[in-house]
Amino acid sequence: MSHTAFPYIQAQQQQSFVLVPEQEWRMVLEGLTRRVDDLERNLDEDIKGTAAAAKFAGVSVRTLQNERDRPGTLIQFKKVGRAVSYSRKSLIAYKQSKRLRVAS
């Protein structure tokens, strides 16, 4: 009997399990937690310079400058004299807002 004859019958997917001693699992979990904390701290660091920020955001320097000056922009920046630094979090939010959305 084939499943095509009965479309309401779906093959069950098998699940795999890995057994790890609890102490080893706790060590792995602590390491992952530290790594996530480090990554979150790095998100708070600013990117110095328009060229570096543009490269990070995946846009041209001119596009970043135009976007920076646009009212209501997601991009947060600080300007001290001629030096400009950009919020890494805001550049990530900007990149995500520009992704194409596929209709489902």
TrEMBL record:
What is the phylogenetic placement of the source species in the record? Bacteria, Pseudomonadati, Bacteroidota, Cytophagia, Cytophagales
Q: What is this protein called?
A: DNA-binding protein
Q: Mind listing the UniProt keywords for this protein, alphabetically?
A: Coiled coil
Stretches of the chain forming a coiled coil according to its record: 22-49
